[in-house]
């Protein structure tokens, strides 16, 4: 039993050491996507789901303000491509972005085509 106890201690120490050495330099989801790519993918899926359900996105709504959104620090917005002055009007931008509770955005066209993310 002397060796069994030592083996247990070594195993626990190895587990602690390995778990503490994992680097988290950039946030990723379980599929190893960056948060930016996850935001783009989720925004695109949300947009497509809304269009399939008959929603009209031509007035450029902020999807993350009005629908279920789960990407922290990001918003999902519909804009014109090329951008128009109306897209730069803060009243037409996502509330979370305007107030500073989100610092990044994904912009898609009303047809769910990617414009930009930053």
Number of domains: 1
Structural Rg? 22 Å
Beta-strand segment tally: 3
State mean pLDDT (0 to 100 scale): 80
Low-pLDDT regions: 5-29
Number of contiguous helices = 5
Encode the helix/strand succession as letters: HHHEHHEE
Gross morphology = globular
Question: Biggest sheet, open or closed, and with what strands and sense?
Answer: 3 strands, mixed
Structural category is alpha+beta
- Spatially, the strands of the biggest sheet line up as 1-2-3
Helix content: 40-55%
Range of strand content: 5-15%
**In whole angstroms, how far apart are the ends?**
58 Å
Describe the structure.
Helices cover 42% and strands 12% of the residues. It has 118 residues and is an alpha+beta fold. It has one domain. A hairpin with a 5-residue loop joins strand 2 and strand 3.
């Amino acid at each position: 039993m002397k060796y069994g106890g030592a083996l247990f201690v070594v195993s626990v120490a190895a587990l602690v050491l390995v778990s503490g050495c994992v680097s988290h330099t950039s946030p990723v989801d379980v599929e190893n996507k960056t948060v930016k790519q996850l935001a783009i993918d989720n925004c695109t899926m949300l947009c497509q789901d809304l269009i399939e359900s008959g929603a009209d996105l031509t007035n450029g709504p902020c999807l993350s303000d009005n629908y279920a959104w789960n990407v922290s620090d990001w918003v999902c917005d519909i804009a014109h491509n090329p951008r128009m002055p109306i897209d730069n009007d803060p009243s037409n931008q996502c509330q979370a972005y305007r107030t500073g509770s989100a610092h990044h955005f994904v912009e898609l066209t009303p047809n769910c085509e990617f414009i930009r993310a930053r």
